[in-house]
């Protein structure tokens, strides 16, 4: 059970990193304006 949770946690971290990167890019676009 904990193994399954660990797998989900890794996936969540990947998703969080991806969305965080996208948010940073959006900030940069707004900043350019």
Describe what you observe in this structure.
The chain has 33 residues and is mainly α. Helices cover 94% and strands 0% of the residues.
User: How would you describe the shape?
Assistant: rod-shaped
Task: Report the helical percentage.
Answer: over 70%
Q: Please give the alpha-carbon distance between the first and last residues.
A: 48 Å
Class inferred from helices and paired strands: mainly alpha
What string, H for helix and E for strand, traces the elements in order?
Answer: H
Mean pLDDT: 79
User: Total helix count?
Assistant: 1
Main β-sheet, in a few words? Answer: none
Report low-confidence residues grouped into runs of 5 or more: none
Beta-strand content bin? under 5%
Report a brief summary of the structure.
This protein has 33 residues and is mainly α.
Write the layout of secondary structure elements.
Elements: H1 2-32
Keywords:
single chain, 33 residues, 1 helix, mainly alpha
């Amino acid at each position: 059970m904990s193994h399954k949770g660990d797998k989900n946690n890794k996936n969540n971290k990947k998703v969080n990193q991806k969305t965080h990167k996208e948010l940073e890019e959006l900030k940069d676009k707004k900043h350019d304006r």
